[in-house]
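Extended Data, panel c. Modelled sequence:
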Amino acid sequence: MKRRTLFVILIFSTMFVLYLNQMLLLEYDTNIVEYIYYSLPQGEAEADYLKTRDHLIYGGNINEPPLGIEDSETGQSLGLVVDYMNAISIQIGVPIVSKPMIWNEALVALSEGETDLCDMIPSEERSRRFDFSKPLYDLKGVIVVKGSTDQGVNKYHLEDKVIAAQRGDYAIEVIRKFNKRVTIIEVDNVSDALNLLESAQVDAVVGDEPVIWYYINELPVMNNMTVIREPIYELSCSVAVPKGEKELLNVMNRAIFELRRNGTLQKINDKWMGYSLLLNENTDAEKLRTGLFMLTGFLGIVIVLIVLGNRRLNSIIAYKTRELQFTFDSLNSLMVVLNEEKCIVNINQAFLKFVEMERDSVLGKHYTAFEILEKAFKGESVFQFGGNLYELKTQDNRIIMIRDITYEKIKEQQLIHNNRMEAIGQLASGVAHELRNPLGVMRNSTYLLKDVLETPNQLTDRAISSIDASIERASLIIDNLLNFSRIGAGSAKCVRVCDLLEETIEYFRGSTKYKEIQFKLNRGVLASGEEITFVTNENSLRHIVINLLSNACDAIEERGEIEVGCSIDVKEGEDELTVQVCDSGRGIEEAEMERLFDPFYTTKPPGEGTGLGLYIVYTELKKINGYIHINSQKAQGTCFTVTLKSIHGDSNGGQNEDSNDR
């Protein structure tokens, strides 16, 4: 960003400098560097040079009005160039003496150092002998023919013509450049050339435009002549000094700059403007063109910068959009963006994976085309769909986020359950400690009673036996309570399965909530007649049986029977335990069978169940290498058959599932 700003500043700074430089060239014929240099005080070298000169000599063609006029009565020189020299003299503080000469002689005198200054148009040939200052005034060269029409004459069509011109005039160089077969008659001044044209001795005259117009305006005899509209040149005249006069040249340049800046040159031009169509070029139009050009350039650059900025901005927006889309697609939550018509304009990969569709097939569809979105728009912040629990967050019903919180809720419920079981365990331990102490006292007391009674009778024996039996029953209840409270993590060990089932059933029998339910245990035995033992995780098995018994109790509305049994077989060389829990309850609807083990799925009224009981059975079975089969008939009851494979140092396992095997 900083580099781009610096680049823009550099561009506009460069444009401003170029514009300022061009305006200075138009106004003062100097660039920025020269403007600064000439604005500074005069240097020591220039000052020392002027101190050595008591006057300077201007040698020019004073006999070419209005550039130069010699008053025959007073002997003084007048004219445009004379006024220029006088102004320069005042500016530099050194007198400039005018020395009238014929033009060609003025050139020779300057080249030989007899004079110091002369005004002329710079050219390649002249620059070999002279150094030139900044432009002093502008000058045109024109062609004059006899008659009232120009007859198609211009500088390109003078072949085989006879032309008169002042000796040494710059116009001669121009005419010869464009016409190889032209004849040029050189005379001392323009007046003599016009006389030759008047007498028809030449076909045309070339010369400086101010001089030509002076004679045409002042001399009636010249009224029958025509000045060709197209000039042969339009150039600036400078002050020429002898070659190598560096200090004098700097003095002239500084003086011309100051005279142009303070308006003196313009006043002189205005004074003699009547003798020339163009003595000094009017730069207002050029300034206007330059301003318009720079303004156009400025606007062009602004437009380019805007276009480039827009491209850059679009590039950044595209990159940020891709970046946001990547982040959008990386979210695990289902993300949907809708427009005002509730049609989908964007979705993330999680949503596409959920609906199993391609992006193009989803975009543009109304939200009602997707059941989960319809469910979400019912206004519930947490809702159940497809066996899972989802949390809905929305921004103005335009941006929708649906997050699967099933796992979180399961963990939350499991944590609550574990905390509850831990509390029960602590309570059971405390109760066992508090109850066993008095039970021990009671047991000891019965022993003492037996010893102290000298003549026991049937009544006292029966009473003492009843007390002992009650103490045994109370101890058994305490043991069952402690075993039940120990549900949690554990390792595989050899479990006496029937004892575990009986302990669990005793817990439910002792609850008044289930007093109308008859519990029956079919104690399986091995072929050898021994009790069934099996290597598994005791706590997980106990947890499974508790949840199955709880589910069976809830399925019985009033009175009923629950039958629990177990058996063991050997398949493929491994022991396989089967535990059945069958109830005489209402049975399970066929439509409910598919969702029976889904978390939070329950047919109970709100507040009476979490829907996690059978899900916990399913997850615990996966831990201990087991699976479950369901057989249910409506109004006749349900039978859950749990099958476990023996665990050999690994508590994890899993099975293939069908619709009724989980």
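The first helix runs from residue 2 to 28. This feature is highlighted in the accompanying rendering.
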